[in-house]
């Protein structure tokens, strides 16, 4: 009897513990020097550990701690005493999880294995207004994408441990890269590091991008109630919310993309393009932009819509979700984030598949 009771208790205990240690799991922590000594460096270290019992194949999402080379908006930073935060001065990237998977751009972690990523906050954030002081720093997004054994993309949320770092700032910590001026628009497009063929592919997308913007303005101007097309990408309809979206497209329609500067030096196979949102008029084009069709789903013209909307001067949209599936889910669950999402605007403009 006693033996049977012990076996029963062991069974119950194992059932309770198994969900905690079995399956995919991640832990994330942030650490760093309390008083940076390098003249212009504010480095922090993000440590990601496989806390489960399965091998993890994690995509190197530029929004996460796994891609420090991108200088994206990766961290939540706030001053302890008054909550002041540095302004974001890094890049926003049109990235594709599917392309990252196809090109094996991922980090593989065995159970118990950890990996460290070093980020220089001075490259992505401008501390000049927030000033010196004590800051709480943690990962802005703890959601990661795992490629399972069947090739499916599976979201995993890491457990996090916010770290309070004491940062002593001086002018050297925020002088330099953040003071670069925006591109001065010219009558003709300017090209940097672009071949003749790349220039042709850029130029062929400019007029279609302009038509996408103008068609979107005309559609929204005529809209007085909810439509399938609107709700697919921006969620529940209201006149005031529609005006917000309409204002974004009017900004693009009035912008002179023919006078932008285009830099073709990015060779990433999982990205289409990126911009510095505060540096109006310069778009950096990556390998997938030139592989894309002129118009249609995830097209060159659509990419130009996406990137132009990132500029703070026009709309200041973010990358809250990538891909049609995720953007449709965003519109349904978080319409406010959808109205501020660049891919959502691109897919509305491309309208593939066609919706009324």
From TrEMBL:
This is Lysine-specific metallo-endopeptidase domain-containing protein. SMART domains: Aspzincin_M35. Belongs to the peptidase M35 family. PANTHER family: NEUTRAL PROTEASE 2-RELATED, PTHR37016. Residues 218-350 form the Lysine-specific metallo-endopeptidase domain. The keyword S-adenosyl-L-methionine does not apply. GO terms for molecular function: metal ion binding; metalloendopeptidase activity. It comes from Botryobasidium botryosum (strain FD-172 SS1). Transmembrane segments: none annotated. Pfam families: Aspzincin_M35.
